[in-house]
């Protein structure tokens, strides 16, 4: 019985040692990925009301997100002229647009062509 207890103790010790070794091997990879991951961008809200887009936020950067809110009683869209995005937003609804590229991005409303604007997005 003492011999069986000693064998079980050795097996537990070996298992603990194997788990610790695996954790130490994986740790640098996990920490490197955390250091390389981009910081979360800022979130901005643009309201659509009275058949117009609200003011565009200044200092937009890749990684930021725009939350578009439709306060009108009709559907609107936020459609990029370069076709990089096309959001359809019903009355009283919101939609999120993560900014994934830099530059000046012209957009308009498919349903109301006089509604238009430009996003100016800087690199990270």
CATH architecture of the largest domain: Sandwich
> What integer is the average pLDDT?
83
Task: Tell me the overall shape.
Answer: elongated
The largest β sheet comes out as:
5 strands, mixed
Percentage of residues in DSSP E strands: 35-45%
The sequence of SSEs as H and E is HEEEEEEEEE
Distance between the termini: 65 Å
Number of helices: 1
Query: Uncertain spans, ≥5 residues at pLDDT below 50?
Result: 19-24, 29-37
Radius of gyration: 26 Å
The percent of residues in helical segments reads 25-40%
Explain this structure to me?
- It is built from one helix and nine strands, in the order H-E-E-E-E-E-E-E-E-E.
- With 124 residues, it is an alpha+beta fold.
- The chain folds into two domains: 1-37; 43-122, Sandwich (Immunoglobulin-like), CATH 2.60.40.420.
- The strands form two sheets. Strands 3-9-8-5-6 form a five-stranded mixed beta sheet, with no helix packed on it. A four-stranded mixed beta sheet has the order 2-1-4-7, with no helix packed on it.
- The model is unreliable at 19-24 and 29-37 (pLDDT under 50).
